[in-house]
Design goal:
CATH topology of the largest domain: FAD/NAD(P)-binding domain
CATH architecture of the largest domain: 3-Layer(bba) Sandwich
Oligomer: single chain
Distance between the termini: 49 Å
Number of strands: 19
Helix content: 25-40%
Bound molecules: flavin-adenine dinucleotide
Number of domains: 3
Number of helices: 15
Radius of gyration: 23 Å
């Protein structure tokens, strides 16, 4: 007889949602988190798309510690000291909220505890416990073994659980991005004034340009109630090919981003209260991660369910949705007394009819994001084209077609390959 029906490794959004749903259905659940408390070690850019959490907690924003509802989207192109911002003001159909993980993850883990899950923090799981080729529990620090009918690996982007259970291939630096983030405190009224927001409204702002010096990546700003979350994300493979010291490069690019005239005006007078860095899985799911084996399923970032579309970064909503599907499959497996891979394959079946379809489009977006021209030539051309259209210096202007032809040719891009790039973008977003 196993110690628990289910052991969940990690109390991020994926782990806590799986724990909550399974405990609610009467299963004995142990959640093991290595941080001092859930959320203590976790960071992200700043926005949760709400659709998947709403399925579990309708109107969760009324009780969850969310910061602001995003009603302003900005895509910015930076070039030198200059920049262009494309601003969308909206009351979106699909809602999204900014939040801070330390508070939010704690709230979600408490939901799991209230439903009956046992959550232990400050305890690191070393590996899955495997007997006769089947996962039968976990081995935690101090070689402590605990057994479960099913283990759910929700241990995030580097998932040693998935790797040691043989569920994912050896990944390389090309499969990850790295993000650095600062939280900068500002008075509420200042945030609302500078970002053009009314109370509780929030802004999500993403930027690309020469700040990353051709490295695949960009900067972000999300507004919270009384702070802004600001940072940069860069693909590790692309960064490593250009610099020898990644952490120094991250710091330098963050500083450059913060001091850009267009960004600086949002931050003036702010106080830096937090700095963190974290890995992001960028292409893992596409590289053949397996989602289940005998006695174990993998959810969230551990399965590589994170996509950077350039204008949106999504991982939290996929983590939650994959945990919901996994909990459903694990519940059926436990009820039927069959927790083999065959039975747990229901997890993938549930995802196939929904979330995994999204990853078909995501594959194309990931390919598109690998085009380094998006981070150098295109922002430059965007800034210079708008300057060409808006600025008047009394000299006769060339027409837009000739201007663009010259701009593209200066960047070594033929009009045909510019059209192809546009076509690729249209098909992948
Ligand atoms: C810079 C950056 C910006 C991002 N921006 C966004 C965004 O704006 N919107 C969005 O939706 N997504 C964003 N993401 C992605 C998002 O953060 C992840 O997709 C999401 O956190 C995945 O949730 P998860 O529960 O699978 O993993 P995690 O949140 O990583 O949780 C994993 C948990 O497991 C614990 N753990 C790990 N190993 C062990 C172990 N051995 N033993 C015990 N516990 C362990 C960790 O401490 C952690 O609590 C961003 C990520 C980064 C890094």
């Amino acid at each position: 007889m196993a110690d628990f029906d289910v052991i969940v490794v990690g109390a991020g959004p994926a782990g806590s949602v799986a724990s909550y749903l399974l405990a609610k259905r009467g299963h004995t659940v142990l959640t093991v988190e290595r941080g001092k408390r859930p959320g203590a070690k976790n960071m992200f850019g700043g926005r949760l798309y709400s659709w998947s959490l709403e399925r579990i907690f309708p109107e969760f924003w009324k009780e969850a510690p969310v910061e602001r509802e995003v009603t302003k989207e900005v895509l910015g192109f930076l070039h030198g000291e200059r920049g262009v911002e494309i601003r969308l003001s909206t009351r979106p159909k699909g809602r999204s909220f900014t939040l801070l993980r330390a508070k939010f993850d704690q709230w979600l883990a408490e939901k799991a505890e209230d439903a009956g899950a046992e959550v232990i923090s400050g305890f690191k799981v070393e590996r899955p416990l495997i007997r006769d080729g089947r996962v039968v529990g976990i081995v935690a620090e101090g070689d402590e073994e605990m057994e479960a009918e099913v283990v759910i690996a929700a241990d995030g982007a580097l998932s040693f659980m998935a790797e040691k259970a043989g569920l994912r291939p050896k990944l390389s630096k090309e499969d990850f991005a790295v993000g650095a983030k600062e939280v900068i405190e500002l008075p509420k009224e200042v945030i609302e004034d500078r970002f053009g927001l009314s109370e509780d409204e929030g802004a999500a702002q993403l930027y690309v340009g020469d700040l990353t010096e051709g490295v695949i990546g960009g900067g972000f700003i999300y507004t919270n109630k009384e702070s802004v979350s600001l940072g940069v994300v860069m693909r590790i493979g692309s960064l490593a090919s250009k610099v020898s010291e990644i952490s120094t490069a991250m710091w330098e690019v963050t500083e450059k981003f913060k001091s850009h005239p267009m960004i600086r005006r949002y931050l003036e007078g702010g106080k830096l209260v937090e700095y963190s860095a974290h890995i992001i899985p960028e292409t893992q799911f596409m590289r053949g991660v397996k989602l289940y084996t005998d006695g174990m399923v993998v959810v969230g970032d551990a399965a590589g369910f994170c996509v950077n579309y350039g204008v949106t970064v999504r991982g939290m909503d996929f983590a939650i949705e994959s945990a919901r599907a996994a909990a459903e499959a694990v519940h059926h497996a436990l009820e039927s007394g069959d927790t083999s891979a065959r039975s747990l394959s229901k997890y993938q079946e549930i995802l196939s009819s929904g979330m995994l379809r999204e990853f078909e489009t995501a594959k194309k977006a990931v390919d598109l994001m690998e085009d380094e021209r998006l981070y150098s030539s295109i922002p430059k051309i965007a800034v210079e084209t708008l300057e060409h259209l808006f600025l008047v210096d009394g000299k006769p202007k060339e027409n837009l077609y000739s201007f663009l032809r010259k701009e593209f040719s200066e960047e070594g891009i033929s009009l045909l390959s510019a059209l192809l790039l546009g076509w690729k973008a249209l098909r992948s977003m």
